[in-house]
Amino acid sequence: MTILYHPFNSEKDSEAVARFFTRLGYGSAGRAGVPLDATGLRRSLTESGLRYACVAQDGGRVVGTIMLLERADGFAAGPGELFGDHYLVDPLHRNSLVSGRLLTAMFQYLIAAEVGTVRLRVDPANEVARRLYAQAGFRAVGPPISNGDGFVEMVNHLPGVLHLLGEEEGITDTHEAPPEILKHFMRRIRHSGDRGGVDTHTDGTRTITFDFDLHQRSFHLVLDAHSGRLIALNVDGSPREDLVAWAKGAGAPAAPGPAEPSAPRSIGRFSARIDERGSLVVEHPDHAGPVLVDPFPDGHGLQIAPFRPPLLPLSTEETPQGWIQTCEQGGVHVIRRIALTASGIDIDSASQGGGPRGLVMQPLCLLRTTELAITDERREREGHLRRGAWPLHLSGFEAALDPQEAVSADGARHTYTDRAHGITTSLSWKGSGLLRPYGACLADDKMSVRIELGEIPAVNPHPDPPARVRSTAPLAWVASGEQSYACAGQANSRILVRDGGVVQWRVAGRVVASSIGGGGRRSRVAAQPCLWPALSEFPRYDLQYGEGLAPHGGIPFLPEADPSAHPALGSWTLEASEDLSLLVPQLRAPAGEGEAVVNLRLPIDPQGIAMADSDGDLVVHHHDGMEWSAWTSVARIPLGAKRYLRIEPLEAARPVILVRARLKSWVLSLYSQRSASATSLSHWSLALEESAAEFSGAEAQDHSGDQTGGSA
């Protein structure tokens, strides 16, 4: 049967597309078991700033979609840019031409709308998707570190190139570029991988180079990797400076430049400032990274983009009490008044011209090992903060959960308590609006929030190493190839290191951890180590971070510790007990702001994972089929056959563990603070235990009966 393609019509197509997403387990249906309906889809797309969508149908049944949005997963597109998202094809049609036709439709819209750049976010382990996007001209131009959800950003500036070269290459009207021309063009810009043609220069700038033949002519062009600006163009070997000059004057509208950050102002031991994008940032000297970030409110009903806020035409005035910020954009006027008090911050926001639910606020608390207590019109509940699961948050489909989760904002209170750092933060709302449990508030024209900041006695979450820790020694490594080492222990125990990461850890013939690899021809993923290091930089606004989800951190492995080796990159090595049941990763990090990270990947077990809460008590949390993340000080993970792995710090500055529940694995990132002026060293204990005591209920509380993960 012929497959038909047409632009998405919200009124006519929402119900069919919602059924399609639900059928494929995508969106709220796949992540929370909440079937997506037409109303939830429409509202979610409105809040994401939907600009265009194409629907593929086979006999009236939806078999594919692709969409272009202004906001995606906490990131905002810049001027002349959009995000590609919800690119989904029915498995029965993935070997057909549906994928290519949807991409072609997207390119046609971008050219017609004179949008020069499209960005998308992809799982770095998904080689199939990365290869498809690379063939269409997408490139990964940033550092090889993913964001908090594990995705890396790819960018495509070729829509702007097509618009520029349209008439030159025989496309008489770029607004009506036929699919054949686009397919012909896309076939010829394929390069070796998603970083093909990407160059980093000595001044830190990045460029993308494309070489291709089209219409019996050869083209060589160099683009600025970030902005897409045309730097150089040769046609048949001849420079075309005229087109370079024309492109410079006809580029995307310039965005407002970053503002000058304000000087910090004190609130006791806390400090508050306005950053270059207009976000309120609260910090504390005992906490790594911000305590709270509150981006400037949105007045058009779009979701807040805390991880990359838009650059707005903001005016910020300093007052004796704090700041007054105003923004006029698209016929909507938004004003935010920030007043500092002796114990916190009062924020009043108002908008004109935005319509119902047009004013959106989302203060983001970034405390780490945190207990969250929620008080609202429905009930009171509390629990260990697990972002994504408790409280429930489905990025891109927030509105779909409103009937089950959202409450009246007036009088609601969220209290975050981090006893490991001795810090507490509470947010109290006042005004008529809708409050989502993860913290976003939607109001018609005005809303107030009171942020209280406090210090409490800190609980030491890192007790002295337990007596059961065995003695360790440097390992006797045998080179087994280039950048590959093997070490054999007692009773058929073994460790394999390849390309700077551990790919197998086996004790007494049983695998404790191993790299993940192929998942079949259609779902093949890149091989990833099970234990590897990385570095994290400040400032960081994303509480979830992404080091543990990148394939490799790039820090060299040394068979023998050598403090003088690789001073700029850092290095790492391993010590272990004789039977290899205890591993001690030792990471030597170069001087710099940020943190050193040791990452560990383990298979999911139905018994869950025991994590120490901010009081130091162990609590068992289950995967629940969802992806979530939480901070802790000690973690214990069952490995089957009554074996458990206990992870805790031995020697580290401000150590903390980020636990992530992925679809098929636990990913633990072991963080410690780096020294700004000297090399820092961190040691962690990964101890295999044979006792089931941690999961017997005597030592750990079980939250398996709580659907939210909190205790009512």
The proportion of residues in beta strands is: 35-45%
Number of E strands: 50
CATH topology of one domain: Beta-galactosidase, Chain A, domain 5
- On the 0 to 100 scale, the average pLDDT is 86
Query: Which strand order spans the largest sheet, edge to edge or round the barrel?
Result: 18-19-20-21-31-28-27-24-25
Classify the secondary structure makeup into a structural class: mainly beta
Low-confidence stretches: 518-526, 694-700, 703-712
> Can you identify the CATH class of one domain?
Mainly Beta
Task: Write a structural description.
With 712 residues, this protein is mostly beta strands. Among the domains are: 1-69 and 84-96, Aminopeptidase; 266-455, no CATH class; 477-690, Beta-galactosidase, Chain A, domain 5, CATH 2.70.98. It has nine helices and 50 strands. The strands form nine sheets. It has a nine-stranded antiparallel sheet with strand order 18-19-20-21-31-28-27-24-25, with no helix packed on it. A nine-stranded mixed sheet has the order 32-39-40-49-46-45-42-43-50, with no helix packed on it. Strand 33 and strand 34 form a beta hairpin. Helix 1 (10-23) packs across helix 3 and helix 4 packs across helix 6 (158-165). The protein is globular. Mean pLDDT is 86; it is low at 518-526, 694-700 and 703-712.
Key structural traits:
single chain; 712 residues; mainly beta; Aminopeptidase; Beta-galactosidase, Chain A, domain 5; nine-stranded antiparallel beta sheet; nine-stranded mixed beta sheet; globular; disordered C terminus
